[in-house]
Write a structure and sequence with these properties.
Blueprint (H helix, E strand, L loop, with lengths): L6 H17 L12 H10 L5 H14 L3 H16 L5 H19 L7 H5 L6 H10 L10 H9 L8 H11 L5 H14 L25
Length: about 220
């Protein structure tokens, strides 16, 4: 059932995203990539890792392998040294090589830009597919990571207990005009302002719209 908002709450939600749009008019992922394939690999590597650590690894990796066939030629053993600074790198190396094999053998080396096909690739779950599809402008999507989860709860945009529940709530209440960028706004706001331990409420452009602000004063 679609979440229903009162007129007052609907106006508050719209104002939240209007202000975030003012300070971050063109938000983008901080992962570095050149095309859909390098984006899929970067997002898959970013699970339980920071964008900074992933970029450091892929800056070197993409000089050696930036296509599915090149990644296959590199192989799992060849890939691991490039990404060993990232958590779960052994499993991620196996997944990246496995998905690269599928892309070569089933899709002519191209990334299928359709959700079910993407999510069928090893190491690519709903969150990764959402990031890819949203970033490439193919499908409005909100991938719920730890930042989006935290900010959504503090702003009372969702009380969902799982990422999927929070995603459903956000997709239902975020105004359509802001939907393609909401994912990035919530991530960046959580990463730099509404941080986990000591949120920077004094620098927050939506402080007066936040029901949780008084908890951190």
């Amino acid at each position: 059932m679609k979440k229903r908002l009162s007129p007052k709450e609907k106006a508050r939600v719209a104002e939240i995203f209007s202000r975030l749009a003012e300070v971050m008019p063109e938000p983008k992922t901080e992962l570095r990539f050149q095309d859909p394939y390098t984006l899929v690999v970067a997002v898959a590597l970013s699970a339980q890792a920071t964008d900074v650590s992933v970029n450091k690894a892929t800056d070197r990796l993409y000089q050696a392998a930036w296509t599915p066939q090149q990644m296959l030629d590199l192989g799992v053993e060849g890939l691991m040294p490039y990404i060993q600074s990232i958590g779960l790198y052994r499993t991620k190396a196996k997944n990246v090589v496995a998905l690269s094999r599928i892309l070569v053998e089933q899709y002519g080396g191209k990334v299928p830009l359709e959700r079910s096909a993407l999510q069928s690739l090893p190491g690519v779950g709903r969150k990764t597919a959402s990031v890819v599809l949203n970033e490439l402008g193919i499908e409005p999507a909100i991938a719920v990571d730890t930042h989006v989860f935290r900010v959504s709860h503090r702003l009372k945009l969702s009380a969902g207990k799982t990422p999927d529940a929070v995603e459903r709530d956000l997709m239902a209440i975020v105004p359509g005009a802001y939907l393609t960028k909401a994912h990035h706004w919530l991530i960046l706001h959580g990463r730099y302002t509404c941080v986990a331990r000591r949120p920077k409420c004094e620098a927050c452009v939506i402080r007066d719209l936040c029901p949780s602000g008084d908890l951190f004063i």
